[in-house]
Specification:
heterodimer; A: 708 residues; alpha+beta; Phenylalanyl-tRNA Synthetase, Chain B, domain 3; 5 domains; seven-stranded mixed β-sheet; B: 366 residues; BirA Bifunctional Protein, domain 2; 12 helices
Chain lengths: 708, 366
């Protein structure tokens, strides 16, 4: 709402400067987003101290989409009298315009007032045109301008029809007929959806009620008689129509927020006074007012003690009553009861936002001043709840991942369908957005990997070579709904460059491989209390990964007999990274993604762990190298060693895998370091030798292993 | 094209020798024998390409080059394996130690100004840094941290927050809707991406008795075209305190304390009336501009920056969850994490947070 300060001063005599006014309005909830110079017109230069305040009016205050509304606030702030605009005297007598509200339209139009005037269409006087322009309204002709001027002043939208162009010389408020159309003032022929409220003549719709008039009854240079409409339309109906027609106007903006149902006749009398003042027309006959069920004013009880309960400050009773009165409420003191003093507050019709006590307390708070509220501190009345397991787990996860050299990414929750497709079984599993901003954000991500791959590619294309990224976030599929997870994406060298490596490693660190990603995932699972195992998946590999270079990550959970599949780790199919723009010839990308809900199910709570006593007796270490079939998974060999060993075997560590000279074709040499230790005594060599023989025998029997 | 016999022979010989090499020195010798510039076997093979019959020249050249790369890779891998292999217990590794001065008792001088070994540690995302800072401040004030789904239903995102269908205030938050509802573990299916984390107020109060003292951080979505200050996805923290004798003055005191911990101890805080459907009275909160003392482009020469929205919980919201608004009062606030990060770290473009450019991410504290 643009407020011309000199116009405002006509309604309320305040001496405050433009800047002071702007500041005061801002502090009372009407943010002044700009102070613009007042426009000047040839015969009337702008007063030197004049300006236009551009006010942001919140959606709850349609009454302030008007000069009078803002003037009422200013009058309250400065405790000055408010002078309303001059109205014409109501003329008694016959009503020259037949107005019918059809039965099914009554609910949407509880009040319809109209008047007729004989007019001489011309340009508006300069002062009026200047004020309209200051408010951001384009002057058209004196008749249309007067209706707009009255709307800006009082906040009530009006419309003028050329009465001689109305068939039958009458107005009918009704719902649009099937397939009915209307050509609106902007020249667009519009199909009217079923249920649209229209203003029609005997034949056709002539206006979309509360939104825009029709071109067929537009006021033109040859108009001699006008029908002036001043009605009150149901806010929801106007809002729906405005949305359906994608047409928002000064009128619809006000009606959909809630106009003043007491204003229609006053607005017509104001228009009549303005027409007379500028010599544009004279009223013919009395005002028509179809208002079958007049509004009953709401009365709200305001308790003085409640103001303190909500605001935390005592506001003096006299100030409360005076403020409400100035804002247009009637505040009648109630007999003092148990709860202390109170008022019965009658709500004026222009305050559509006020219906309960809290709305009045807001008025008191605004005018008392937020800056005068003390800054106190709420008493703690109970201890805070302990942090949730999920949050603690995520923070730990983030710590371990950053310690693993991965940096955190946050990528968009919506992605391109093509990027998402490889990560679901069928396109039915994708969760689509009905009104996406763009094709590139059309589906919710089923996996965190596409976003990470995009971030990885973004960095690869900007001279970053070694990239380790992770993200913790939600994934969305139709089958599983919304699930939390984490993912990593790695590429580049497996370790940082260092000068001491330059001769030993031929000047470069080896590139990242699958064991970097399984290593990180293993470490994370361990930190989260999950005993994860990596298994070669039953063919085929999980969709987007390379078969033979991918492990599924599984772990036992207390609530299920079969191990849970937490996720996977492995090499990303090269085509996927390439499709997202990874430079050709780049090193492979390795990824992993695990489900955090499943991790929670499989996790033991490490916060409740007890520390194991430190070993009191020495350990004995033995190395064991065996040749086995090259296709035998190493995990199987380690499992056999463990199952064949006595309890004293504390650790099995694999330190070599070798194929080549000295190992028969099709076989591979695996070397393990076994650590034996007993908690209660020093083990003897004999015991360990015996254990090693048993282990070897089992390896030979089960895997045809040969000692090397 | 089958592999040329000469290539296969060199490979077989190399692999055999490499298998024998057990120390860095031996690996270097193997490297010299195959890749050495004068007598290297692969070097000789490459030279022989020129003498090959013209029709075989191209294939031989390609194969010889491929072999060279293969050998280079194998040497690197073997070096890594040898270097990482532990010294067998009770046996001293022959030759010089891989790292100068690492054996007990060694004391030859080294150039200590040579760069140390880099320890690679990743960085938290700047938005996480801010989020965790906010979480820590409110944890210190006795608040519980709660989280909820990003796909919400209309009731929790709007209706229970005093925004019935077609309420004009819904226009303030342009919403992304799902094509078909998504099932949720409990409650009605989700139909939209939450436009704020305020829905967690409702979810929490529906399942907990007062008093309530929570913050709800998380991702939220709006159908906003991205620009310098708008992102269709961003992070928000919602705060809620409900109990007996909770006042707007408490809101002011708490937010002042929060903002002074988050920014500077001498940050000035201003409250200004505003409107949100789910709070009344509502306040927009401003802090003294972090960029200037007397007006700059960022604060539009006002000296103030808008930082969050807040207010007293609307009685209709308390009623929607079955709380008695006569006995209980409360306040709520919502703050954009991205906005805080932009102001704290002087990031000009909100979109930079979602590019995940490591040159930006690596600037942030661990």
């Amino acid at each position: 709402m643009r407020i011309l300060v000199s116009w405002l001063r006509e309604l309320v005599p305040v001496e405050a400067s433009v800047e002071e006014l702007a500041d005061a309005l801002t502090r009372h909830g009407f943010e002044v987003s700009a102070i613009d110079p007042a426009p000047s017109v040839p015969d009337r230069p702008a007063a030197p101290a004049d300006a236009v305040l551009d006010l942001e009016i919140t959606t709850n205050r349609p009454d302030c989409l008007s000069m009078v509304g803002i003037a009422r606030e200013v009058a309250t702030i400065y405790a000055r009298p408010l002078t309303g605009p001059t109205l014409a005297a109501a003329v008694p007598g016959e009503q020259p315009l037949p107005v019918t509200i059809e039965d099914d339209a009554r609910g949407l139009c509880p009040r319809y007032a109209a008047a007729v005037a004989d007019v001489t269409v011309a340009a508006s006087p300069g002062w009026m045109a200047a004020r309209l322009e200051a408010a951001g309204v384009r002057p058209i002709n004196n008749i249309v301008d007067v209706t707009n001027y009255a709307m800006l002043e009082l906040g009530h939208p009006l419309h003028a029809f050329d009465l001689d162009r109305l068939e039958g010389g009458e107005l009918r408020v009704r719902l649009a007929r099937p397939a009915e159309t209307v050509r609106t003032l902007d020249g667009v022929e519009r199909a009217l959806p079923a249920g649209t409220l229209v203003i029609a003549d005997a034949g056709h719709a002539q206006a979309v009620a509360g939104v825009m008039g029709g071109a067929d009854s537009e006021v033109t240079g040859s108009t001699k008689r006008v029908a002036l409409e001043s009605a009150w339309f149901d806010p929801l109906s106007v809002r729906r129509t405005s949305k359906r027609l994608a047409l928002s106007t000064d009128a619809s903006y006000r009606f959909e927020r809630g106009a003043d149902i007491e204003a229609p006749v006053r607005a017509l009398l104001r228009v009549q006074a303005l027409l007379r003042d500028i010599g544009a027309g004279t009223p013919r006959g009395a005002v028509v007012d179809r208002y079958p069920i007049p509004r009953t004013a709401a009365a709200v009880t305001l308790r003085h003690a409640r103001i303190r309960q909500v605001l935390g400050v005592d506001v003096e009773a006299g100030f409360v009553a005076a403020t409400l009165e100035r804002l247009g409420f009637d505040a009648d003191p109630l007999p003092a009861g148990d709860g202390g003093s109170a008022w019965r507050v009658t709500v004026p019709a222009h305050r559509v936002d006020v219906g309960r006590e809290i709305d009045l307390i807001e008025e008191v708070a605004r005018h008392h001043g937020y800056d005068r509220l003390p800054a106190t501190f709420p008493a703690a009345v109970q201890p805070p709840a302990p942090p949730s397991g999920a949050l603690a787990r995520r923070r730990l996860l983030r710590r371990v991942l950053t310690a693993s050299g991965c940096s955190e990414a946050i990528t968009y929750g919506f992605i391109e369908e093509a990027a998402a497709a490889p990560f679901v079984d069928g396109s039915d599993d994708l969760v689509r957005i009905a009104n996406p901003l763009a094709e590139t954000s059309a589906v919710l991500r089923p996996s965190l990997i596409p976003g990470l791959v995009d971030a990885l590619v973004y960095n690869r294309r900007r001279e970053h070579h070694d990239i380790r990224l992770f993200e913790i976030g939600h994934r969305f599929t139709a089958a599983r709904g919304e699930t939390p997870g984490f993912a990593v994406a790695l590429t580049g060298a497996s370790s940082p460059e260092h000068w001491s490596n330059s001769t030993r490693w031929g000047g470069q660190a080896p590139p990242i491989d699958v064991f970097d990603v399984t290593g990180i995932v293993g470490r994370v699972c361990d930190a989260l209390g999950v005993a994860a195992v990596f298994e070669a998946p039953a063919a085929p590999a999980p969709g987007p990964l390379v078969a033979g270079r991918t492990a599924v990550v599984r772990a036992a959970a207390p609530d299920t007999a079969t191990a849970l599949t937490l996720g996977y780790a492995g090499q990303l199919a090269p085509g996927i990274a390439a499709a997202r723009g990874l430079p050709a010839g780049d090193e492979a990308v390795y990824v992993a993604e695990l489900d955090l809900d499943l991790i929670a199910r499989a996790a033991t709570d490490r916060r409740r762990m007890a520390a194991a006593p430190l070993p009191r007796y020495p350990s004995i270490v033995r190395d064991l190298a065996v040749a086995v079939d090259a296709a035998l998974p190493a995990a199987t060999v380690r499992g056999t060693i463990r199952s064949a060993a006595p309890e004293a075997l504390r650790q099995v560590r694999q330190f070599d895998r070798y194929a080549g000279k000295g190992v028969p074709q099709g076989r591979v040499s695996l070397a393990f370091r076994l650590t034996f230790r007993a908690p209660d005594r020093t083990l003897t060599d004999t015991e360990v030798e015996q254990a090693m023989r048993v282990i070897l025998a089992r390896l030979t029997a089960e895997h045809d292993a040969q000692l090397r | 094209m089958p592999e040329a016999p000469a290539v296969g022979e060199v490979r077989a010989a190399f692999l055999a020798e490499l298998g024998q090499a057990a120390s860095p020195e031996q690996i270097q010798e193997v490297r010299n024998r195959y890749l050495g510039r004068k007598r290297g076997a692969v070097t000789a093979l490459l030279k022989s390409v020129a003498q090959a019959p013209p029709e075989a020249r191209r294939d031989l050249g390609q194969q010889a080059n491929a072999l060279k790369r293969e050998i280079e890779r194998a040497l690197v891998e073997r070096s890594g394996a040898v270097a990482a292999a532990p010294t067998p217990a009770g046996r001293q590794q022959p030759g010089r130690s891989a790292r100068p001065g690492d054996a007990a008792g060694r004391s030859e001088p080294v150039d200590v100004t040579l760069p140390g070994r880099d320890v690679r540690i990743g960085n938290r995302h700047p938005l996480t840094v801010v989020r965790e800072e906010i979480e820590a401040i409110f944890t210190g004030l006795g608040f519980e941290i709660v989280e909820g789904p990003e796909v919400e239903d209309d009731y929790h995102n709007f209706e229970a927050l005093n925004m019935p269908p077609e309420h004009p205030a819904r226009d303030m938050q342009d919403t992304l809707y799902l094509e078909s509802p998504l099932r949720t573990p409990a409650g009605p299916p989700g139909t939209l991406l939450r436009t704020h984390t305020s829905g967690m107020q409702i979810r929490y109060m529906e399942t907990h008795e007062p008093p309530v003292r929570i913050i709800a951080p998380g991702l939220v979505y709006r159908r906003d075209t991205p620009d310098l200050t708008h992102s269709p996805m961003f992070q928000q923290v919602e705060g809620l305190l409900v109990g007996e004798n909770v006042t707007m003055a408490d809101l002011k005191g708490t937010l002042e304390s929060f903002l002074r911990q988050l920014f500077e101890p001498d940050t000035r805080v201003m409250f200004r009336p505003s409107f949100f459907p789910y709070t009344e009275p509502s306040a927009e909160v401003f802090i003294s501009c972090v960029f200037c003392r007397d007006g700059c482009a960022v604060c539009k020469r006002t000296g103030w920056l808008e930082i969050l929205g807040s207010g007293m919980v609307h009685p209709a919201v308390l009623e929607a969850v079955g709380y008695d608004p006569e006995r209980l009062t409360g306040w709520a606030f919502g703050v954009g994490i991205d906005r805080i990060a932009i102001l704290k770290y002087r990031v000009e473009d909100i979109r930079a947070f979602y590019d995940n450019d490591l040159r930006l991410l690596e600037q942030f504290p661990l």
